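Standup, Tuesday
Yesterday: got the pipeline producing structure tokens again.
Today: sanity-check two examples.
Blockers: none.

Example 1:
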Amino acid sequence: MGFSSYKSSILVMVLAMAVATTSASNFYQDFDITWGDHRAKIINGGQLLSLSLDKVSGSGFQSKREYLFGRIDMQLKLVAGNSAGTVTAYYLSSQGPTHDEIDFEFLGNLTGEPYILHTNVFTQGKGNREQQFYLWFDPTRNFHTYSIIWNPQQIIFLVDNTPIRLFRNAESMGVPFPKNQPMRIYSSLWNADDWATRGGLVKTDWSKAPFTAYYRNFIAYTPASSNSVSNGAWKIHELDANSRRRLRWVQKNFMIYNYCTDYKRFPQGLPAECKNSKA
């Protein structure tokens, strides 16, 4: 498939999704601000949400409902300028000591240096499945769409509809897969300067506070919907050939850490699911 065909297929998908969701999301209806007091705000009639961090506190929100499988889209514009020491987290999670979790975390950096996109998957309380990426654009200049497709076969992380990570169901290898615990959507902006930037060497510059991230255009395609387009958005059993090429492109050019190649970390052998991780 040529690039023009790729763009055409993406346009068709975007138009189909627009048809499937005739009413825009509203943060008042879909989310609760859970901490941070005035640092978290819903504005523009519910169409925009902002989180801020200052030296006293960060802020966060969570979805009103839980999800068991689906596709979750959210557009974010990250903290601009010197964001070193800050973390903007956007993730799905259940509760309890054996919780499941699917993570996007954006690790801030000095002005002009790239953000690191940190991803992880927890199953039954166990994580340690980190993959990290640079992005191929400045995530602070404009809004970009960060998506999770979660179904019984796999979890796909996407950025602007480009897959960056695939976590397949490897229960046949004895690896638990998140398929029984409904999860809420959470997001927070917080200070993590003990580890977030260069392993904690670069600290948060509080003279630049408040730090602010913005959210808009939340869409959830879920099994509860009877709409065929909505179902098609998350019932993806396999990536098509073009999506696999895009995934390989991202992982070749922008992946900076992969637990599945960290032999020093796992001297007794890589985790079992790593044998099942090729695009």
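Example 2:
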Amino acid sequence: MGSERMEMRKRQMSVQQESAAGGTAPAQQGQPGQANPRGSNACCFCWCCCCSCSWNEDRDERNRKASYDVKEGTADCEDCPKPTLEEVRSWGQSFDKLMCCPAGRNSFRQFLRTEFSEENMLFWLACDEFSKEANKSAIEEKARVIYEDYISILSPKEVSLDSRVREAINRNMQEPTLHTFDDAQLQIYTLMQRDSYPRYMNSPAYKNLLNTLSEQSPES
């Protein structure tokens, strides 16, 4: 009986020792394993933070310039009187007549905003203003701003241009002139004329404006 108890006691002690050894080994093995992920994560975290911060700074700088261009260069709405019934009717005759009228550009621009293509009008307006720049020392800076806002593939307001025009702009940006964006401006003008203008003429925005002015006209 005593020998059986002794044997059971030895077995219990053996099990306890094995359990203790098994608990210690994973802990000891786990420490180096835990240290490596921390080091790896720390490196990745620092790298991501550095890149992220740098990218965010560049993005914030681009957004600041873009905001300046919209607020200072091409205001949300051009200063112009309310359009007359005759003017609104003339918009339906040709895209040129629409674009020659400040009120027409405003109305069309608001329509483009609903189609998420307002950057086309913003680019055209920026180029139109740029072509009138008389200060030669300001040409290079303004050309760079237009490029970063509407030509660069990093810009959220990049316009759609074919490779030929884009390559020509890249070459001309080495020594920009008042004609640097002429081909691009014409291409975007043609794009709006063929693509967006027909939809605008059939849109509720144009029809409602035309109907409202018709009802207010003394002729009606």
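Quick observation on example 2: DSSP finds nine helices and no strands in the chain. Residues 23-57, 65-75 have pLDDT under 50 and may be disordered.
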